[in-house]
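ok so I'm stuck.
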Amino acid sequence: MSKLKYQMIIQWSEEDDCFLVGFPDFPGQRWRTHGDTYELAVANGIEALESLIIAYEAVGDPLPEPSYEAGSLRN
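replied:
not stuck anymore, here's the structure
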């Protein structure tokens, strides 16, 4: 699964007092998980992404195409 190239958005929320994690390529709720620290949000985000993929595969739904911006961080 590490070769899948889905965007993971991590954003601090004053209201929730934690980092929120979302996956814009997957429809549904905006935020999928969270973490009290950035590092925990990343770890939880990876776990949430893996769970999303397993759930899609379990019901036979096709995975959404990963989106990315041209020219992003590539040399």
